[in-house]
Records
---
Amino acid sequence: MTRKVTKRRPAQEQDKLIFTALQESGRPVSAYEIIDQLRDRATLAPQTVYRALDRLIASGSAHRLESLNAFVACCQSTHKGAGAAVFAICDDCGTVSEFAEPRAVEALASWAKKAKYTVRAMTLELRGRCSACTARMA
Ligand SMILES: [Zn+2]
Ligand SMILES: [Zn+2]
């Protein structure tokens, strides 16, 4: 299978551009928000952005938040490529905190093993209110 490369920007450069956009936004963004954000710097087709996001996710540099249908830059250099990430999403201010909870991930992996279930992706998302918003509401 051959793929004709007609884009003027090499994949690596695209990935870097999109990763930078994710880091700059500092919150979960959709592919279309990324395109908007980079409008001054590049004209990107949605499929170009999705392909770059797929590569960034595969390498552990970014994550997809299923419940928001949005993407974030990985903020834990330690778990790059390790797969599962845990997120706490604030429904009020939209802040997303990424953290590692190896015990939760191990528990789920061990269930999958027992159930002979093959895990393709694991994203744990907590929905609720962050500490700052909780304090503000009190
Ligand atoms: Zn991560
Ligand atoms: Zn909040």
Note: Residues 90, 92-93, 95, 129-130, 132-133 surround zinc ion (ligand 2) (CB under 6 Å).
---
Amino acid sequence: MTTTSKIEWTERTWNPTVGCSKMSPGCKHCYAEGMALRLQAMKTSGYENGFKLTVLPKRLEDPLKRRSHTTYFVNSMSDLFHEEVPTDYIEQVFDVIARANQHTFQILTKRADRMSAFFMGKKVPPNAWLGVSVEDRQYGVPRIDALRKVNAAIRFLSVEPLLENVGTLNLDCIHWVIVGGESGPKARPMKEEWVDSIRAQCEAAQVAFFFKQWGGWGADGIKRAKRYNGRKLNGQTWDQMPVAARSAW
Ligand code: SF4
């Protein structure tokens, strides 16, 4: 089973594992946790264990059944490089990705060290984009160096939820940066100058920049009662995609 996604930078989600555990400040209000618990209460197949890490081999072949080019976000409800996912299962996931070469797969992790160790001596399928979450300086920024070690066609950063000014980033060998604020009733604020600093660094380094959303706080620094989905920065939308993607979309 794969699902159409509302996430602005992808088309569908494919979750060959579900569930996770928190490891850094970006996880504090994890969307996947709340959703997994709701799906468990609704007795939805795959969520019998709630948010506990669960591998779902029955879903492995799902992308192979779809012929037309589709961009999949892999594991919107989990982290493929979670320590409880067996290495041979990750290998099976990438085997499917390599065989489903009519598609593009976006894999995002907070377990950047495990990802770079996994790919030591292995080739990354050319249709796999690999990314890391960069929510702050202490936990997020060091993941970028681990990502750089992996020889992926597209390396990307998901700077969401952006929790502080992350300073000067080393964008060498990075192809795409997505920035977004936190959503939900307990959303933490994001300042415009933090986002604009990243945008300017991307422009200088010729890295594609995608501004996903403001989240729970507006550009004016005022918290909204409901989810605020404004997407403009400096009066415009920023929907840049990495170069290899443009011909595919
Ligand atoms: S790594 Fe992602 S899925 Fe896992 S707890 Fe953190 S935010 Fe949630």
Note: Residues 87 and 118 are 8 Å apart (CA to CA).
---
Amino acid sequence: MKKLNIGMIGYKFMGKAHSHAYRDLPLFFPKHIHPHMKVICGRSLESVADAASQFGWDEYTTDWREMLTRDDIDLIDINAPSDVHKEIAIEAAKAGKHVFCEKPLALTLADSREMLEAVEAAGVKHMVGFNYRFTPAVMLAKKLIDEGRLGDIYHFRAWFLQDWIIDPDFPLVWRLQKEIAGSGSHGDLGAHLIDMAHYLIGDITDVIGMSETFIKERPLPQEMTGLSATGSQSKEKGPVTVDDATLFLAKFANGAIGSFEATRFATGHRSTNSFEINGSKGSVIFDFERMNELQVYFVEDKEDVQGFRRVLATDAAHAYSDVWWPAGHTIGYEHTFIHSVVELMEAFQEERQPVPNFKDGVKCQQVLEAVEHSIEQKKWIKVTDL
Ligand SMILES: NC(=O)c1ccc[n+]([C@@H]2O[C@H](COP(=O)([O-])OP(=O)(O)OC[C@H]3O[C@@H](n4cnc5c(N)ncnc54)[C@H](O)[C@@H]3O)[C@@H](O)[C@H]2O)c1
């Protein structure tokens, strides 16, 4: 296989990020299978036509089902809001298409399990959009942990802080509606933290959480894209049906313990996606807004130079450094999507499933739902009971 024909649904925030990844991949990874940007789908003919021309897609359509009937589409890439992931992914799998789906995989654990069953029954490749795994700093943290250089892990402490809805008049976008988003900051931001914990530390066994919705109703929106919207002046209001902030504690199968905080009400924090890991031999600190850098501390350093130091993960020793720029020339948010697509293409070349895939999506959903149960029941919940 020299190229993979893509049919993509959604052309706004994630649609643009994925389109950019498909376009850039051949420039930097010429030996990989090339994604071919065949058809893009959206609900408005005029807008999807504009997106197709701007992003570089061959064709556009307003009917995703029509894409599934075409023999010249190999993979369906789902970048629409979370309420439509399940139907599209299952139908795509039934049509024999490989599926790349944005996170959270579904609105519920049951739905995500149905999606996993469908892709496994169809024998197609499946991937989920946990792109932060592919930042230089996180890839370095993973290497240090896998090589035992942090020793036994005691703590995983993670926080994803944003403030884009701090204004009570910010409109009621789809991310604030449970029937479309599944949950609020929990499924949006917390999902990334949970995936990071699974990736770096291992299985989460028990959780206990709390959540809050600070602003209970908001003006109805007019236009919305990603994290921006118009309609603040709308007189008509609707209820916010998701959490504004969710916090939880967790126990891991390997004995480590964790704390997680996801909020859209952290004034001044645009997108502080961070974690700290403490092990018997050392610690690391990650901050997405400085995604090329990892703070590291090693117990075995000589006493007179002990302390956290900043490692710029762009040297020859670091993942993907050979394809990007000379050492010290950093990469950005969009590269996390390029790396995701590189992993997807390598999975085809190596005849294996890409990672992270729907199994990771289901595992994440299991923890999301366990936290919700613990909040309702005000007690610790065993994740494996779900
Ligand atoms: N990996 C990440 O970091 C990340 C970041 C943002 C969003 N996401 C996820 O990506 C998905 C999309 O989010 P977004 O921010 O791009 O949303 P968005 O609102 O910016 O764009 C959604 C797109 O989906 C299209 N759409 C909406 N309903 C549709 C339907 N029924 N059928 C076909 N197309 C439809 C819209 O026209 C639009 O093009 C969500 O699941 C979200 O959770 C992931």
Note: The chain has ten helices and 19 strands.
